[in-house]
Design brief:
heterodimer, A: mainly alpha, Four Helix Bundle (Hemerythrin (Met), subunit A), 7 helices, 2 strands, globular, B: mainly alpha, Helix Hairpins, 3 helices, elongated
Chain lengths: 217, 104
């Protein structure tokens, strides 16, 4: 039973993602392109929230959320490390689609490149290199699973209660302008220059450290 | 129901975060724990981008922060996989319960 459910999810996830990729341009085409105050078209960086586009956005959001939470639940329940990595791809790709829905195009692309393209491959290589058989199972005691489940359910209930009941003091605008690469470039080289440089030093240190630790004697 | 707001994204992020914590608690494979950490970081990232989007999109501070989180996650995964390989070389397993040689 669980095996069949797993296989179904493995096949369903790429199909759903492909469907979303097909729907996305339609969603963009449906929305009107507003003129900004400076007289520039926002065609490449912004969309206006329209009444008829809201339904499709909601549909896409619910599909994305279903894939994120479904793959996450599958990771929780799966005992096989390779299957967990595959489900993690479903989660990461749907989170990238959520970034596109949130008008964070650059972050969505980076999520796909760095997470789905880099980190996930690294994890799978780690699985292959650190087990005699990639299908090795590590059994967890039922007591531990129940205790962890109770703790996590309580924690989730607490967080959800806060999130749903809180009133966020947010500005709401009719026209929502997406972010552009230009904004990222100038922000990284002005306001965020110090973290950016620290990050580059960190990446160098991590590269040397990982190569040093994984070396052969 | 069809109006997607900030709360919808926050609920998804919360559930992803909690599921990541559950994975970290229950998996004994070191790579499995790493997968849980990635889920937690993704949940936090959804929060950052959603708050950035629903705050009038006046800046990209949230997105820049999530960019840094993604870079840190990649660096952390690289180091953790290297540590796992060392762990495997020394103990011939990646079961974290066996990493107790320092215990008295």
């Amino acid at each position: 039973m669980t095996l069949r459910l797993n296989q179904l999810m493995v096949f369903a996830t790429p199909i759903i993602i492909a469907t979303l990729v097909v729907i996305a341009p339609v969603q963009a085409a449906d929305t009107e392109l507003p003129q900004s105050e400076q007289g520039l078209t926002l065609s490449d960086q912004g969309i206006q929230k329209s009444a008829d586009g809201g339904m499709l956005e909601a549909l896409m959001f619910y599909i994305c959320a279903a894939v994120v939470l479904g793959s996450g639940l599958a990771i929780c329940l799966s005992k096989n490390i390779v299957r967990m990595a595959v489900y993690l791809f479903g989660t990461l790709a749907s989170v990238a689609l959520m970034y596109f829905l949130l008008l964070a195009n650059f972050i969505g692309v980076i999520q796909l490149i760095v997470y789905a393209g880099g980190t996930l491959i690294l994890l799978i290589f780690g699985v292959m290199l650190t087990s005699k058989s990639p299908w090795a199972k590590f059994d967890v005691k039922r007591n531990e699973m129940i205790a962890a489940g109770v703790i996590c359910a309580l924690f989730a209930g607490m967080l959800l209660m806060v999130v749903v009941n809180a009133e966020w003091p947010l500005e709401t605008d009719a026209v929502v302008v997406g972010s552009s690469m230009t904004q990222f470039g100038s922000a990284l080289l002005t306001d965020y220059l110090v973290p950016f440089e620290a990050m580059s030093v960190l990446l160098l240190v991590v590269m040397i450290g990982a190569a040093y630790m994984a070396r052969q004697e | 129901m069809f109006e997607i707001g900030l709360t919808h994204y926050l609920v998804v992020a919360t559930l992803l975060f909690v599921m990541g914590i559950y994975v970290m608690m229950t998996k004994r494979n070191a790579i499995g724990i790493l997968i849980g950490v990635e889920m937690v970081l993704n949940g936090a990232n959804i929060n950052l981008v959603a708050f950035n989007r629903y705050n009038g999109m006046s800046g990209i501070d949230g997105q820049i922060t999530s960019l840094f989180v993604i870079v840190l996650a990649a660096a952390e995964a690289a180091l953790a996989v290297a540590i796992c390989m060392n762990f495997y070389k020394n103990l011939n397993t990646v079961d974290v319960d066996h990493g107790d040689t320092l215990a008295g």
